[in-house]
Amino acid sequence: MTDFLEMPIHLNTDRRILHVDMDAFYAQIEMRDNPSYRNVPLILAHDPRKTGGRGVVATANYLARELGVHSAMSAAEAVKLAPHAVFVTPDFPKYRDVSRQLHQIFKRYTQKIEPIAFDEAYLDITQMSSNHRKAVALAHELQQVIYDELDLTSSVGLSFNKFLAKLASEHNKPSGITIINEEDIRPFLDKLPIQDIRGVGTKTAEQMIKLGINTGADLFATSQSDLANTFGKSGYAFYEHIRGVDNRPVMWQRERKSLGKERTYGPFLDTEQAILDELKSLAQQLADILIKERLHGKTLVLKLRDSDFNTETRRETIIDFLPNDEQEIYRIAQDIFEGLGGYQKPIRLLGLTMTNLAALSFENIVLNLYE
Ligand SMILES: [Mg+2]
């Protein structure tokens, strides 16, 4: 037994956090748009009988789930469980558009939105709901507005932190609204299997089960010193989580209109090649910063200032989002530059800016599932 200093815990109940999770999102969109899919097991994946068995299930409707099909399962396994299911190849651009419509609705209520996936987000509604009663009303209204405008059902969880809000939304699917107040923490957490507690991974779960900690109630009954001695720093975290404590903020981003890089040159750039080399370097920096900020854009703006202080800006917009790829950005920058007539006079300033920006975060998560 090492020396132990008991750390007090503090449950912050001041915030009001929603977790909104669309029900079987892709499947629901396909069922909405195609009535013949509504009463059959529907699996969103390439049909493995046509791809030679490859592919992964993106999602499945509730009828297919009843047969044991779930997302991230191989499509070949899904076809064994549900041989009569309809397979539909996912249409990610469509789901992305619906996701954008969903976010437009969220934005009417709060800017503090943290997207987790196409169909899932945390919303911090502390400021727009001055008390608990208003927060509950807002949760109901939001769910109703999503249904009225998008014709899609969602499950909503409301609590005072992200951990509990997510547990709440998972509690009653589909179309549920679940609220976890302070007095609900024990009933909710006590019956949870240990691996569902925030921060408990597969390995830790195995370790806990060996120690006889199988449920939330078992974890709650374990002393802080025992947890700290066995699991080190994580032990303190488990001690907090099982008491419903989670102080992580909702990670929202102020909406950015544009992101750019510019440089002034002395001596001036006095050959076409020198200018193109600099554009290449700016394109690389711009791609890096877009990736870092998890944004992408549709419009590239080139700014040039010549030795006589004449400034020119010219933009090019493309239909879809430009990949955050230095070669692609450079190619368009070069296009714009050539469109301005190429080299005319020595250049003292060059700038590249991306506008028409949108968040990249949720697209990446989804697309990775799909080779
Ligand atoms: Mg969902």
From TrEMBL:
- What is the main EC category here? transferase
**Gene3D superfamilies assigned to the protein according to its UniProt record, in alphabetical order:** 3.30.70.270, 3.40.1170.60, 5' to 3' exonuclease, C-terminal subdomain, DNA polymerase, Y-family, little finger domain
Q: Which residues form the active site?
A: E120
Q: Which GO terms describe its biological process?
A: DNA repair; DNA-templated DNA replication; error-prone translesion synthesis; SOS response
The cross-references to InterPro entries, in alphabetical order and at most eight, read: DNA/RNA_pol_sf (IPR043502), DNA_pol_Y-fam_lit_finger_sf (IPR036775), DNA_pol_Y-fam_little_finger (IPR017961), DNA_polymerase-Y (IPR050116), DNApol_IV (IPR022880), PolY_HhH_motif (IPR024728), Rev_trsase/Diguanyl_cyclase (IPR043128), UmuC (IPR001126)
GO MF annotations, alphabetized: damaged DNA binding; DNA-directed DNA polymerase activity; magnesium ion binding
Q: Name one GO cellular component term.
A: cytosol
- Record: residues binding Mg(2+): D21, D119
Q: Where are the transmembrane segments?
A: none
Cofactor names from the entry are: Mg(2+)
Q: What is its EC number?
A: 2.7.7.7
Reaction(s) catalysed by this chain, per the record, are: DNA(n) + a 2'-deoxyribonucleoside 5'-triphosphate = DNA(n+1) + diphosphate
Q: Which Pfam families match?
A: IMS (PF00817), IMS_C (PF11799), IMS_HHH (PF11798)
Where mainly located?
A: cytoplasm
State the oligomer form and interacting partners. Monomer.
Its biological purpose: Poorly processive, error-prone DNA polymerase involved in untargeted mutagenesis. Copies undamaged DNA at stalled replication forks, which arise in vivo from mismatched or misaligned primer ends. These misaligned primers can be extended by PolIV. Exhibits no 3'-5' exonuclease (proofreading) activity. May be involved in translesional synthesis, in conjunction with the beta clamp from PolIII.
Q: Which family does it belong to?
A: Belongs to the DNA polymerase type-Y family.
Instruction: Tell me which HAMAP family the record gives.
Output: DNApol_IV
According to UniProt, the name of this protein is DNA polymerase IV
Look up and give the organism this protein is from. Answer: Weissella hellenica
